[in-house]
């Protein structure tokens, strides 16, 4: 039955999976500029995706998102093929990874990865057997409901995995994590890292900056990309110059909050 479904789809509605432009940029050592999407609505994500950024991050960890709202945002972002929508999961749970990937999330960010074994388990959850354990389904949004020929055999080609380094254990194991096949990016979470290193909200502290530099060195030493969230322009420019390539330079929430604050303040000051 499966063969017949695939045959019919291939004959009538065959499609090619879109190239992951962010993955191409990072593999070439080129910067990919991104914007965080935290407002959990398809409309605001559509606005941000049309701004010309190389990628957006739909946040499932610190935003009021669920599977349905994330899929809706993936659909909205799909109108802008040069902007790759990545999804940050709330955890490394294999069932969540399966659901998000079936829903069309092929670029994933996983928080607080601490060891190479944890990274290997995440890669396995993203991969079909025999390389991994991703559950098999004939037709879902990720393979255009059965219309992408050979999707299951080639799914890993356009996937991207960014693992977040957010604690001292992750920093210590960064080189081993970066060496795991299937890990594409070590992405520093500066807020959590500074908190876990005893200086909450102060990633500029010298010992935190040293840890951030060591993550960058570990990633580059394994031929992998390094990323970071840097909503302040001076920080973003400094990290880009240092060699970080997957750099988020702001968020929809920040843009709305600061923009509305500044607008009201200008009139209140009259």
**How would you characterize the largest beta sheet?**
8 strands, parallel, barrel
Radius of gyration, taken over Cα atoms and rounded to an integer in Å:
19 Å
Q: Percent of residues in beta strands?
A: 15-25%
Report the CATH superfamily.
Phosphoenolpyruvate-binding domains
Ends: how far apart? 72 Å
The quaternary organization reads as single chain
Bin the helical content: 40-55%
Count of strand segments: 8
Instruction: Quickly give the CATH architecture.
Output: Alpha-Beta Barrel
List the uncertain runs: 1-10
Summed up, the domain count is 1
What series of H and E elements makes up the topology? HHEHEHEHEHHEHHEHHEHEH
Identify the notable features of this structure and list them briefly.
270 residues; alpha/beta; TIM Barrel; 8 strands; 45% helix; disordered N terminus; Aldolase/citrate-lyase_domain; Pyrv/PenolPyrv_kinase-like_dom
Verbal overview:
The chain has 270 residues and is of the alpha/beta class. It has one domain (2-268): Alpha-Beta Barrel (TIM Barrel). 45% of the residues lie in helices and 15% in strands. The protein is built from 13 helices and eight strands. An eight-stranded parallel barrel has the order 1-2-3-4-5-6-7-8, surrounded by seven helices. The chain is globular and about 60 Å long.
Blueprint (SSEs and pairs):
Layout (H helix, E strand, L loop, with lengths): L1 H12 L7 H7 L4 E6 L4 H8 L5 E5 L7 H11 L6 E5 L5 H9 L4 E4 L5 H11 L24 H4 L5 E6 L2 H5 L1 H5 L6 E4 L1 H7 L9 H16 L3 E5 L3 H10 L3 E6 H17 L2
Helix pairs in contact: 3-4, 5-6
